[in-house]
User: Fold this.
Amino acid sequence: MRTAIVTDSNSGITREKADRYGIFMLPMPFYIDDELYLEGETLSHVDFFTMQQSGARIYTSQPSPADVMDLWDRVLEEYDELLYIPMSSGLSGSCQTAQALAQDYDGKVVVADMGRVSVAQKHAVLEAVKRANAGMSARDICKELVYYRNEFQIYITVETLDYLKAGGRVSASSAMIGNLLNIRPILSLNTGQVEVVGKAKGEKLSRKKMIHAIEEDLIGRFHASNLDDFYLAAAASMSKEKAAEWKQQLEDHFGIHCNMSPIPLSVATHLGYGTHGVAVMRKMK
Assistant:
């Protein structure tokens, strides 16, 4: 039994990395001033943020059922079955659409709703690849991944409140005052639910609060005294220099290696340039 691993570009996995690990990637569609773009294929991160900051009207969309099925059909020409790990059902309807489409594939397509996005989704995909390479079936891989579904936490902060205001997560008056006073929200994401869990004045303090939140989760939620059984990963939509600085700060504080990935454009659509965050994920045995 040959099992393929398929995901979408919301995982933040680059095309280069997908090719290296044998991962099949579904690019997420975007409409920018009513013109269709595909992340990683017809739209780069540089072009996206250039257009976003110029005031272009941007909105996300689900991949069409035809595009999803076309990719699955091409994969199944080479593999016996596939495991599809899409963006969290709590953030997009594309997961439920995929689950409905999979019913027509006689068990050859298994959809894993991991409740994840960005670096947490990426982690699940890479773990799935290990298991597929070891000969596990799609259903068995899905069972193992879902066992760890809730064993992660993401914290994010933004540079401007304008995009959260546009998405209805903060009021116009709160956004105006927050931008004026440089007050940044600390956002929490777990299994698809996004919540504002704190505020901080400026980038330096917001980073400290995210680090402190990770430390509190280790003890209070994960019942761990250290990060021995966890991975640490950062994500950012900012200059390479500033992203490297954030990565180094996390490594210096926690004393372990920290991966860094670009924030997927589906997330950046609602948060904007200058967004950065950190995720802690329990290692899958």
User: Anything to note?
Assistant: Residues 202-220 form the longest helix (19 residues). The mean pLDDT is 91. The two ends are 22 Å apart (CA to CA). The CA atoms of residues 187 and 196 lie 5 Å apart.
